[in-house]
Amino acid sequence: MTGTSKPKNKFLMLLKNDFLASARVISLFYIALIILFGVFGICALLGGGDSISAEFASKLTTARNVSIVLSILVSFLLIFVTFFFVVYDFFKSLFSPQGYLSFTLPVSSNQLLGSKVIVYGGWMLLSYAAFMLTSVYLMNYTADEVIGMEKISLVESLLTMLGDFPSTTQIIAYLVYMVLMFFVIFLSFVSIVYFSITVSHVRLLQKHSVVASIVIFFVTALVFLWISFKMTDIVNFVMVFNDDKTLSFGILSPTEYLVGNQLGMEVTPGFAFLVLDIIMFFATSYIMHKKVNLK
Q1: pLDDT-based confidence at 218, cuts 50/70/90?
Q2: Residues 56 and 122 in one domain
Q3: DSSP letter, residue 208
Q4: Running DSSP on this structure, what letter comes out for residue 272?
Q5: Separation CA 16–CA 14 (nearest Å)
Q6: Would you say 194 and 276 are in contact if contact means Cβ atoms under 8 Å apart?
């Protein structure tokens, strides 16, 4: 059969290579997490039997509790391992001697940067999902099987008697909100790091690229915070998670802190950071394409 072969999509190949390069180390943590969950599952299953001795049951309980703590710890460390490779691979593949090869690939600067954002953004989302699912599931299991719901209900009753405390549902919702905000801030942190490293490799700054990248990072971070605070002063949009699992929305004035006597979850700062991240992406891509001077 004759004919011409269809040209391969270079951007998809770039995505594939970035994914494989990052998976070599990051995947080891997921394997460790799976093994720990396996240990936890086996201990929980065997520990529920009635035919085991008290000594063996005690060992199973210890192994189960250790696997719970280690699972949460590994899933938490996974976030920081992912972040390390977000920064390390960006510098190594674009601004080390390997950068000559990367910039000669038949892809645009948007695609070079976009591949890093997609691959490592995906790893970050997966890392956060792994941490959240692991923590929520194991903490619920600990509350039900280890601590006991009777003790938790007693504590909640005591807190209610002491004052007008948020319900468990509202506390969980606020914790989820804090984790999501941490992810948004983390994403902005990575955007600023990418921008700082890129700007520090323009011809004027590249002799002192390390010092320049640090200075640029702090200046850009302060600008991010200033814009976020200014937008919050203009319109402080908030949401409240109610006991009936519905959401309420409102706008706070600069002197207010509560929405209907409940602690509101601010939306404006997260929205500001996301908009700035998009702007930063295209600014970084432009500098990579037009201004970067490889050593």
Answers
A1: very high
A2: yes
A3: G
A4: H
A5: 5
A6: no
Please state the domain count of the chain.
2
Which residue is it, tokens 């999902």? 129
Boundaries of domain holding 276: 163-295
CB-based contacts of 164: which residues, under 8 Å, 6+ apart?
261
Q: Which of 192, 11, 22 is nearest to 92 (CA)?
A: 22
Adjacent-strand bridge partners of 265:
239
> Do 187 and 277 meet the contact criterion of CB atoms below 8 Å apart?
yes
* Whether residue 37 sits in one domain with residue 15: yes
Continuous H helices in the chain: 10-47, 54-95, 99-103, 109-141, 149-162, 168-199, 209-234, 268-290
- Spatial separation of the C-alpha atoms in residues 177 and 88, rounded to whole Å: 29
One DSSP character per residue, 231-264 reads HHHH-EEEEEE-TTS-EEEEEE-TT--EETTEE-
Tens digit of pLDDT for each residue in 263-274? 667 788 888 888
Contact 284, 113 (CB under 8 A): yes
Query: Letter for the amino acid at 260?
Result: G
Identity of the residue numbered 199: V
Give the pTM.
0.71
DSSP 6: P
Query: Does residue 22 carry a pLDDT above 50?
Result: yes
**Residue labelled with tokens 């460390």:** 77
Q: Which of 152, 183, 216 is the last residue of a domain?
A: 152
Give CA–CA dist 6/47, Å, rounded: 58
User: Residue 278, exposed/middle/buried by CB under 10 A (0-12, 13-18, 19+)?
Assistant: exposed
